[in-house]
């Protein structure tokens, strides 16, 4: 076979001696090939085989985040922290910068949902202003209802601060705004719940809470509870405020710009205080759920606080298990869903009565129901 191959190559060499491959010339000249291993492909380095000749080697891929040394194909070089190898591992390219922006589908969708819920809350607020003289709006302190609707509007809008490229100012604003607004919202719900309890106590001559009605305690609950959260936020901002940072390790080949909470102890204190307010509101509303209130205010408040607490309890594992911009999306979703839960649970029954059953929104109807409730009780 080898003899036939040489005869064929000799014939080719006579016809076209300058177009003969170099390996064929080696075969004709009797020079053996010194290559026992093929050259390594791009992105692979040469690794000598122990006990073998230098021309025999293995090809090992460069590790993650490394490229082949252009001056020495037996070693790989690690890319800088802000760069990542290309697909062939020949060059270090700048990493992609990622954050939740308005230009992408997820960011724009969350922004649209926030605006729509804000407009819906504003519509309910306008409806309550128009029907401010009706019994269902007057019930359980209409001023607190106005304040709750305004805080919910700001709650929906504060989620917009979480969308866009983070910087130091925005990181401080978004966290403080979120904490203060939700503390105002929950403290208002707590004040509404205590108002229901005190109103019922005023109609019951045997109640020990009747003496507290004249003190107008619900008026002081909102500013005092909110001021405590404001003080916590001031301490947080002056000692170790949130700041923007470049997270190189969240996702492979991507730089995630995110907000670092700064002091985790103060951040946990802010969230813990908000959770304490929600727990107290849920506890008081649950105890008062069977009071003979015409519009079942305490039942709706208890259910809204149950939804609120459920959202934020499930938020914690979801927040810890996500990375990159999905973490911000989870936080925005928790803000929107908890605010929407409070809006629908507390105000949708009242809007239903005002718009679809106006005959129930009368003083005579309320008086008749209260009378029947008192007769049943006694």
From TrEMBL:
Matching entries from InterPro entries are given as: GPCR_3, GPCR_3_9-Cys_dom, GPCR_3_9-Cys_sf, GPCR_3_C, GPCR_3_Ca_sens_rcpt-rel, GPCR_3_CS, GPCR_3_vmron_rcpt_2
Keywords carried by this UniProt record = Cell membrane, G-protein coupled receptor, Glycoprotein, Membrane, Receptor, Signal, Transducer, Transmembrane, Transmembrane helix
Q: How does it sit in the membrane?
A: Multi-pass membrane protein
Say which domain of life the source belongs to. Answer: Eukaryota
Q: Name one GO molecular function term.
A: G protein-coupled receptor activity
- The name of this protein is Vomeronasal type-2 receptor 26
UniProt source species: Xenopus tropicalis
Q: Does the keyword Calcium apply?
A: no
User: Where are its TM segments located?
Assistant: 105-130, 145-164, 176-200, 220-244, 265-288, 300-320, 332-355
Q: Which PROSITE patterns match?
A: G_PROTEIN_RECEP_F3_3, G_PROTEIN_RECEP_F3_4
Question: Could you tell me which residue ranges the G-protein coupled receptors family 3 profile domain spans?
Answer: 106-370
- Cellular localization per UniProt: Cell membrane
Q: List the GO terms this entry assigns under cellular component, sorted alphabetically.
A: plasma membrane
């Amino acid at each position: 076979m080898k003899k036939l191959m040489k005869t064929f190559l000799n014939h080719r060499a006579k016809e076209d001696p300058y177009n003969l491959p170099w390996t064929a010339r080696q075969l004709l000249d009797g020079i053996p090939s010194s290559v026992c291993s093929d050259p390594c492909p791009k992105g692979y380095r040469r690794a000598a085989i122990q006990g073998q000749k230098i021309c025999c080697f293995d090809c090992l891929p460069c590790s993650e985040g490394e490229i082949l040394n252009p001056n020495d194909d037996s070693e790989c070089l690690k890319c800088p922290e802000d760069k990542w190898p290309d697909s062939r591992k020949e060059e270090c390219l700048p990493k992609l910068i990622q954050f939740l922006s308005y230009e992408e589908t997820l960011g724009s969708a969350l922004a649209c949902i926030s605006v729509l819920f804000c407009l819906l809350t504003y519509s309910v607020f306008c409806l309550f202003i128009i029907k401010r003289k009706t019994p269902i709006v007057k019930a359980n302190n209409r001023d607190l209802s106005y304040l709750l609707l305004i805080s919910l509007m700001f709650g929906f809008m504060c989620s917009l601060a979480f969308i866009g490229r983070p910087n130091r100012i925005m990181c401080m604003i978004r966290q403080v705004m979120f904490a203060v607004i939700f503390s105002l919202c929950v403290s208002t719900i707590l004040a509404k719940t205590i108002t229901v309890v005190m109103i019922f106590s005023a109609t019951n001559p045997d109640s020990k809470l009747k003496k507290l009605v004249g003190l107008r305690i619900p008026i002081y609950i909102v500013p005092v509870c909110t001021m405590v959260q404001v003080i916590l936020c001031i301490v947080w901002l002056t000692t170790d405020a949130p700041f923007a940072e470049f997270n190189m390790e969240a996702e492979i080949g991507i730089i995630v710009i995110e907000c670092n909470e700064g002091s985790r102890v103060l951040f946990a204190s802010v969230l813990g205080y908000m959770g304490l307010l929600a727990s107290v509101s849920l506890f008081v509303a649950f105890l008062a759920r069977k009071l003979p209130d015409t519009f079942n205010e305490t039942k709706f408040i208890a259910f809204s606080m149950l939804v609120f607490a459920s959202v934020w309890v499930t938020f914690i594992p979801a927040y810890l298990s996500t990375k990159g911009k999905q973490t911000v999306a989870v936080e925005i979703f928790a803000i929107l869903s908890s605010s929407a839960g409070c809006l629908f649970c507390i105000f949708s029954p009242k809007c239903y009565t005002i718009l679809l059953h106006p005959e129930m929104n009368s003083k005579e109807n309320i008086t008749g129901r209260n009378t029947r409730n008192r007769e049943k009780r006694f």
